[in-house]
Amino acid sequence: MVSTFAYKPGDHEAEKASNGYLMSLIAVIAGLPLPIINLIATFIFYLGNRKGTYFVRWHCTQALLSQFSLLAMNSVGFWWTVSIVFKDVEISNQYISYMITVFLFNLIEFIATIYTAIQTRKGIHISWWFYGDLTNAIVRK
Predict the structure, then answer these.
(1) What total of structural domains would you count in the chain?
(2) Range(s) of the domain holding residue 130
(3) CA distance 4 to 7
């Protein structure tokens, strides 16, 4: 959902806000098998920018919040897969269904993150469903 801020962010602000989303993408590529890597990298970037302008803080917070959902879903999938590989657990229809769901959720989040990073870099405010409202409740002007 595209919405507007009362002011047009400068290039420096737009770049920092966009980098909040890019940080999570880079972390996905670097730490793919370990779901916590994305969250840690995004959290560190958030900490470095939490005292920035409202636009930067808002987008760093939204990027961070989205990583919590990914962490939860990916962790379950990761540990379920580990239990199948190292224990006497069979692959079930539930496992396959869950892994397809996790894959689709990650793919949608990946595409949305790229789109949001591009739009935010242009100074356009993108508010994600659920995370945008939660970010509004957390980040104060």
Answers:
(1) 1
(2) 2-138
(3) 8
